[in-house]
Write a structure and sequence with these properties.
Blueprint: E1 7-10, H1 17-26, E2 28-30, E3 35-37, H2 46-52, E4 63-65, E5 91-92, E6 105-106, E7 118-119, E8 122-123, E9 141-143, E10 148-150, E11 164-168
Antiparallel strand pairs: 1-11, 2-11, 3-4, 5-6, 7-8, 9-10
């Protein structure tokens, strides 16, 4: 049996109602930031609240939020290891949540400081057949007049695959008014 608050990575077809119903009967909910009552009853998960508290936020004094991991890359808590130089600046994922170097916090987009070697408005080396290309970054576009180079897509991200995260609530089956999905 899983531990209360344990998060599972699931690789199933989430459009299959029978699979979702099985998860609900076992006491799992999707990690989609749902607001859930702190006390028992048809819409409460008191055992999960006992473990999570409001680390994942809450704007209601009678509720708490399940983690919302949709579209997020997860990072292990550093717990004293010097692997996250900005850990002290981590923010709450939603109102009322944990801040600083704690589980349940988040960091926004960042790209490490770096240099593309511009000298006099020209990338170095500039050995390409076209005036608007850079040999070191052939997919980039260069404006020699301004000394600017543009490169990249709509976000910085590692290679990835899509999975679904669910959290074990310790309440099996789920109370009838607790939503498995946020929407």
């Amino acid at each position: 049996m899983p531990n209360i608050g344990e998060i599972a990575i699931l690789a199933f077809d989430n459009s299959r109602p029978a699979t979702i119903e099985t998860l609900k009967q076992q006491g799992w909910v999707a990690c989609e930031g749902q607001s859930v009552a702190r006390v028992g009853g048809p819409n409460g998960l008191p055992r999960l609240f006992q473990d999570l508290g409001t680390a994942w936020g809450s704007d209601d004094p009678n509720a708490f939020n399940v983690p919302d991991l949709r579209g997020e890359f997860l990072r292990g808590w550093t717990h004293g290891k010097a692997a996250d130089p900005d850990a002290k600046d981590r923010a709450a994922v939603s109102e009322g949540g944990a801040t600083g170097n704690k589980v349940g916090t988040a960091q926004g987009h960042a790209f490490a400081q770096h240099n593309h070697g511009f000298q006099g408005g020209t990338p170095v080396p500039m050995l390409t057949p076209s005036d608007d290309m850079c040999a070191t970054h052939p997919e980039a576009r260069v404006d020699r007049g301004s000394g600017e180079m543009w490169q990249g897509g709509s976000e910085t991200r590692p290679r990835n695959v899509c999975v679904m995260f669910c959290i074990f609530t310790g309440h099996a089956p789920l109370p009838p008014q607790v939503k498995f999905f946020a929407t």
